[in-house]
Amino acid sequence: MDERKLSLEKCKGFWVGAVYADLNTKTLRKDDLSQPLSELSFSLLLTLVEHQHNPLAAEQLQNKVWQGVVTGNENVKQRISILRKAFLALDEQEHIKNIRGKGYLLAQPVKLDYVDKTLKIWPLVITILLLMLGVAVWASWLYSSAPKVLKSEQYQLAVHAGDSITLANKKSDLAFCLDGFDDYVEAFNSELDIGTGDFSLMTWVKTSSMGQHIIVDKRYEDQVSDVQGYAFYIDDGFLALQLADGDGSWYCQEPDSSCTFYDSKAFVSDGQWHHVAVSIDRDRTKGIRFYLNGQLNSAFDPTGRQGSLSNEMPLRIGSRSSFKTGLFKGAIGEIALHHRVLTPSEIRQQYALGNSRNCSGSGSKGGI
Description:
The protein is of the alpha+beta class. Helix content is about 20%, strand content about 35%.
């Protein structure tokens, strides 16, 4: 077997069949069409390109792409599926094949697009010097900046209990402005637990990031056994929800899992403000309802998750509760948690009120 690894050094992109992948923008293109990829999806593609002659098993992809983060074969399959769909949106040819018993392999030839070799030396030297200066400035900033974590006891997070539990920046005109690097908001309040009841979540969001990013998360998870709680998040630009009642495997795709993903058709990662909401009536077959800008978007069946969602973890805005991952890059407005199912008219009314929070005038780290 050919074990050579293809080097992408000095490349600005490459073709996989008739589809061009831009290393700078992490975008697939063909003719006038384009498909942006998340960091994780693009890393997966790069790994397949670098090992284009060697099928890679799911376990090998876990080691090379996820680099030590605990994940499972089903997550690899899901990411392969996302990458296949991106190619299929541009070209009807098969681009990734699964060789039984061996692993995943690119199905189309790879051609590298090299940087112009006539590049003069002095512009290159100047670029390197500027990069070194930038790294020095960044390192200086990093050394002097502690991670920005908002906690309720710091009095920058306002928590109000009434008909709903609201979480908002104490400054009435500021959203939670998160950098996607080390910012998140954390709140401890027993009213944020759901138990076995119905509930609704509602807020405004603004982001252009792809990948998986948390809006609200209150789950216990150890990446080994049971998961318990709820998460409202964005997955490759689309709103999604996870319900976990602590009975079964950590991998949501497995038949005996303790959690279920519900992926809506509501795309929000376009850099614009969007009003987003989800209501969960746990006894109805179409009890999960996603709303985008006041309008019903999609519905799902939550009846398979009747156990308690309560746990001892804090609620986090912009990060997973149990790990510092899934960090949100963008802005999140006031969040409302209702211990009941909101009606469509109530959600439309809240959307009609508009968003009074933003990130203008905030510091370099945003409104926190």
